[in-house]
Amino acid sequence: MNTEIFHPAFFGYANLPDSIEFNDQKLVPIKAIRVKYQGKSQSNGVFNIENIRCLCDFLGIELHRPVRGLYCVEECYANFFEQLYNFYVKHVRLSVDFPGFFYNSNGDLMWGITNWHTGEASYQKKCDGNVIKNLFNSYFS
After folding, report:
1. Residue range(s) defining the domain that contains residue 38
2. pLDDT by residue (tens digit) across 6-17?
3. Domain count of the chain?
4. Is residue 66 part of a domain?
5. What is the edge-to-edge ordering of all strands in the sheet holding 20-22?
6. Sign of CA dihedral 29, 104, 81, 48
7. Are strands 121-127 and 70-74 parallel, antiparallel or unpaired?
8. Is there a domain that residue 61 lies in?
């Protein structure tokens, strides 16, 4: 086991590796996926950490935790996020860094906005979970 991957700098953005090898697996930190597709902004866009973890749960992608606070996916699944990103940009036509995006329990990509005057929230479905699941299944078939 390579203990160098446990350097505390990996928990931030400085020196964040694109991938790590752990227990004979090549793993990609979820934070690296976030930075690649959403940048370092703090918005709750499509590719924020919480949304990636929720999407992994919906798609059945196992999260690896080689050290506390560092969540990773196998490299093949990280490559799927490239296809998903391109699909969103081309077909869903949304800004992946725009705030208010989340995945519901059906895997639907939702966009929520709150009316600051009334406090009421409204939600729009931006992409059906079945479309995402089909894209995932076709990528691995």
Report:
1. 3-127
2. 555 455 666 677
3. 1
4. yes
5. 20-22, 25-29, 70-74, 64-67
6. negative
7. unpaired
8. yes
